[in-house]
Design a protein that fits this description.
The structure is a single chain. With about 425 residues, the protein is an alpha+beta fold. The chain is about 35% helix and about 40% strand. It contains ten helices and 14 strands. It has a 14-stranded antiparallel β-barrel with strand order 1-2-3-4-5-6-7-8-9-10-11-12-13-14. Helix 7 (about 135-145) packs antiparallel against helix 8 and helix 7 (about 135-145) runs parallel beside helix 9. The radius of gyration is 30 Å and the shape is elongated.
């Protein structure tokens, strides 16, 4: 056998031996890619358990297929299982170089878990390696927004929109930043209450309210004017919502009046705590100092967000007539495209009134209330809203009456 024929035969033998393995490896890769696409489709359909099972099958074929690992982490994040998402994703960002998709996913995980500072760190770590990554820039902007660092978020989003004018997500975030920079609010509201007993004239309540949004607090000054039983009364209030910690803030209220209808003095305090799973709880009290009696209302609330829905329950406990009066208020709110547009269904049972004005309302025995409250945009800088409430109240042991309250308000941002 000549050397040339020997060499060609050897090459043919090697090729015949190698090709089946190569084809098998290529087939494995194709199967993994196809299965990952199916897993992504299952995740988009909200079938997270199925998606994870398919992603695990991908990893059984290709153990280092990082996109499958990131998908598993994201499905946990979408189910608000932050700890499980971290366990899956952190190994990918601790390697060298860190996996950019895992950094982006972790930025979202921490933001949704209520830790924008950690979210910002993950986004910055990713941008250090890929400064032009738009998804990471948007993640950084969202973290800056939640940290109330609006100026920095605004500048970052301007650069993204300038580079990608058709990016709807960046444009929407930039609009939010412009709105967030409008830290002053002026609101005018008027309510009228009608009675069906043919003996009580309608009640009027007007309010002028100024709000300032500071980086770590909200401050409100309010003047109220009430007209009832041919009497008029004025009340001034100051309120604050200071941030006490990453997940804790407070409500503080103090007011004084001319002592005609409103309580002579009023105070209020409440502590709010943000909890996992988009829950919020609080506990507090309101004290109303009338000339004849001091009324203490103990209260709190428990609320939860479900996407664009919010549900909350607030009880009131009041010592009255040698016993305790209780009130339960249930609120069901639907948000629309903009966060400041919503409609709320209010259901209530108990003596505590819709508006705390006169002692007569506080002292009533019982009431059943159902109502709607709405808020919507007139423009980017103006909001309007309406209120419609029906109450069936028992103000003595043998006397009942119906009351209907209507209200309108307009608010300007500047």
């Amino acid at each position: 056998m000549t050397p040339l024929r020997y060499f060609l035969g050897l090459c043919l033998l090697v090729a015949c031996t190698a090709l089946p393995g190569t084809a098998s490896a290529q087939q494995h890769i194709l199967n993994a890619d196809s299965l990952l696409v199916q897993a992504q489709q299952q995740a988009q359909a909200g079938k997270y358990n199925n998606s994870r099972k398919m992603a695990q099958q991908v990893l059984a074929v290709a153990p280092h297929y990082s996109d499958a690992i990131v998908l598993i982490g994201r499905t946990y994040a979408w189910q608000h299982k932050a700890d499980s998402a971290r366990i899956v994703l952190l190994p990918l960002v601790q390697q060298e170089p860190p996996h950019q998709g895992a950094l982006l996913a972790l930025a979202d995980v921490e933001l949704w878990a209520g830790d924008p500072e950690q979210s910002l760190q993950h986004a910055q770590q990713g941008l250090a390696a890929t400064p032009t990554s738009v998804p990471l820039q948007l993640a950084m902007a969202r973290a800056l927004r939640d940290l109330k660092r609006y100026k920095e978020a605004n500048e970052l989003l301007k650069s993204v929109v300038a580079a990608q004018p058709q990016n709807e997500v960046a444009s929407a975030l930039l609009e939010q930043m412009v709105d967030a920079n409008l830290t002053h609010r002026l609101k005018v509201e008027h309510q009228t209450t009608f009675f069906t007993d043919n003996a009580t004239e309608s009640w009027q309540l007007s309010q002028l309210e100024y709000t300032h949004l500071a980086p770590k607090a909200k401050f409100i000054a309010r003047v109220s004017r009430a007209q009832r039983y041919s009497q008029q009364s004025l009340q001034g209030e100051l309120e604050a919502y200071p941030q006490l910690g990453k997940s804790t803030y407070a409500y503080i209220n103090a007011g004084i009046s001319d002592n005609n209808l409103f309580p002579t003095y009023r105070t209020g305090a409440e502590i709010y705590q943000l909890l996992p799973f988009k829950l919020e709880a609080s506990v507090g009290a309101r004290t109303l100092f009338f000339p004849s009696q001091t009324v203490v209302l103990y209260t709190g609330h428990l609320g939860k967000y479900f996407g664009k829905q919010w549900i909350a329950f607030r009880p009131f406990f009041q010592k009255q007539h040698d016993g305790w009066q209780t009130t339960g208020i249930l609120q069901l709110r639907q948000y629309f495209k903009q966060e400041d547009e919503h409609i709320t269904l209010v259901l209530s049972k108990g003596s505590t009134p819709f508006s705390l004005v006169g002692f007569e309302e506080i002292a009533r025995l019982d009431a059943t209330r159902v109502g709607l409250e709405s808020q919507f945009r007139l423009s980017k800088r103006y909001l309007a809203g309406a209120t419609l409430m029906y109450e069936r109240e028992e103000y003595t042991s043998e006397a009942h009456r119906n009351r209907i309250t209507t209200g309108l308000f307009v608010q300007a941002k500047f």
